[in-house]
Design brief:
Strand content: 15-25%
Structural class: alpha/beta
Oligomer: single chain
CATH topology: Rossmann fold
Order of helices and strands: HEHHEEEHEHEHEEEHH
CATH class: Alpha Beta
Shape: globular
CATH architecture: 3-Layer(aba) Sandwich
Number of domains: 1
Strand order of the largest sheet: 2-3-4-1-5-6-7
Largest sheet: 7 strands, mixed
Number of helices: 8
Helix content: 25-40%
Length: 234
C-alpha cells in the first residue's frame, strides 16, 4: 500500500507540471552579461536567479526559470546563444509558440553593438508579427559621470531624449536601432544592482519595466505580471 508521504512528491510534481504547461513565457533575448538574470531576480525577488540557480535547460541554447517553482505562474526563457556564431533561434521560438508570449530584449546601455540581438528579433518579427517586444536598456550607471547616482524621481520617457548627456545619447542611439522593428517597440532604461554596489534604489526602473510589460503583453501575461512582487523602493 502506498503511503501518504510517498504520494506527496508525485502529487507536487503533477501540480508543477500542469502549471508549467499553462504558464506564459517571457523570452529574454540578449548577450551574455547584459543583465537578464538581474531582471529575473528583481521581478521575482528570487536570489537564485542572480547566481544561475533555479534555471533548467529546455533547449540546446536556452534555459528556463519558473516562478514560483512549485507551481509556476510565469516562466522566463533565457537565451544564451545570442552573439555566438551559428546561433539558430528556431528551437527557442518553437518552445514559445504555443504559449502567450512576450519578448524582452536586454541590452547594456553602453553597448552599441547589438546586431546579433537585432538579427534574432527580426526573425521573431518575421514569424510572429503580433509578439510584442520591450527593450530593457540596462546598467545605466556605467555611463554616469564620476560621483553621480540615479536621478530621482525616475526621469526617463521613451518618447523624449532629454538632455544630451553621454547616457542620453547612448539610449537614443540604441532606440534608433531597435525602432527599425516597428513603432510599437517599447524602451525602458533601468539599473538593477545589488545593495553592495551602492546605488539607491537597487531596482531603479522596476515600476517602469513592469508597466511597459503589462501595457505590451497579451492579457494572460499582463494579468500574471501584475501579481509579481512590488518594487523594494515602495
Amino acid at each position: 500500500m502506498t503511503s501518504q508521504s510517498q504520494q506527496g512528491p508525485d502529487r507536487s510534481e503533477d501540480i508543477a507540471a500542469r502549471a508549467r504547461s499553462f504558464a506564459p513565457v517571457v523570452w529574454l533575448v540578449g548577450k551574455v552579461q547584459s543583465g537578464k538574470s538581474s531582471i529575473v531576480r528583481t521581478l521575482t525577488r528570487s536570489s537564485e536567479a542572480e547566481v544561475g540557480l533555479g534555471f533548467e535547460a529546455c533547449t540546446k541554447t536556452s534555459r528556463v526559470f519558473d516562478f514560483p517553482k512549485e507551481a509556476p505562474i510565469i516562466r522566463f526563457l533565457d537565451t544564451r546563444g545570442v552573439g555566438e556564431v551559428g546561433y539558430d533561434p528556431a528551437p527557442d521560438i518553437a518552445f514559445c509558440e504555443d504559449r502567450s508570449h512576450l519578448v524582452l530584449a536586454v541590452v547594456k546601455a553602453a553597448d552599441m553593438e547589438q546586431q546579433s540581438v537585432l538579427n534574432v528579433l527580426k526573425v521573431i518579427r518575421k514569424r510572429h508579427r503580433d509578439w510584442p517586444i520591450v527593450v530593457a536598456q540596462t546598467s545605466l550607471h556605467e555611463l554616469y559621470e564620476a560621483g553621480k547616482s540615479h536621478v530621482l524621481p525616475y526621469p526617463f520617457d521613451a518618447k523624449r531624449d532629454g538632455e544630451q548627456s553621454p547616457l542620453q545619447r547612448a539610449l537614443a542611439h540604441q532606440r534608433s536601432l531597435f525602432a527599425k522593428l516597428g513603432d510599437d517597440v517599447r524602451f525602458v532604461p533601468l539599473d538593477f544592482t545589488l545593495e553592495a554596489d551602492g546605488y539607491t534604489p537597487a531596482d531603479y526602473g522596476h515600476d517602469a519595466l513592469v508597466e511597459a510589460l503589462i501595457a505590451a503583453a497579451p492579457q494572460a501575461v499582463a494579468a500574471v505580471l501584475s501579481e509579481l512582487p512590488a518594487s523594494v523602493a515602495g
